[in-house]
């Protein structure tokens, strides 16, 4: 539940908030992911957690730090992206998907979310004029994820992935 008592996800009698919990729940009931091993689920959760860390730090930079020191906000965003970008480049495959399956899992989707979502990550990237293009393997992976038929269908119908509600 959110602080105001409104769930962000309702599925039957279940009402939950917090994106990590929602992502984990949806991944656990998605038919495509029913046969993932505990180890594969742990890797997915790790990437989803990293995404949440990036999201929180980007929100801090654009909503708090920038108000007091824009240069520090820019430096913080660049350091954040450079740090995780290097980790991702080292860990993800040059071909295929992170789990080695013929389809993307939540780990791959987390990286796609980092690179294409607008709020707050894209807004922070815009503030810092940061180019994700230097993450060659990450961007190639994201192109493969976007080409997946289910992801492609979702992205073509979504109004929210690149939404900019505050005009930032």
Structure description:
With 168 residues, the protein is mostly helical. It has helices spanning 19-29, 38-68, 70-91, 106-116, 121-128, 136-147, 149-157; strands spanning 9-11, 14-16. It has a two-stranded antiparallel ribbon with strand order 1-2. The radius of gyration is 16 Å and the shape is globular. The mean pLDDT is 93.
Distance between the termini: 28 Å
pLDDT averaged residue by residue: 93
Main sheet specs:
2 strands, antiparallel
Indicate the low-confidence ranges by residue numbers.
none
Q: How much of the sequence is in beta strands?
A: under 5%
Written as H for each helix and E for each strand, in order along the chain, the element string is EEHHHHHHH
In DSSP terms (H or I, runs of 4 or more residues), the helix count works out at 7
Rg of Cα set: 16 Å
Strands, total number? 2
Quick take:
By secondary structure, this protein is mainly alpha-helical.
In terms of topology, how is this protein built?
Layout: E1 9-11, E2 14-16, H1 19-29, H2 38-68, H3 70-91, H4 106-116, H5 121-128, H6 136-147, H7 149-157
Antiparallel strand pairs: 1-2
Keywords, please?
two-stranded antiparallel sheet, 2 strands, 62% helix, mainly alpha, single chain, 168 residues
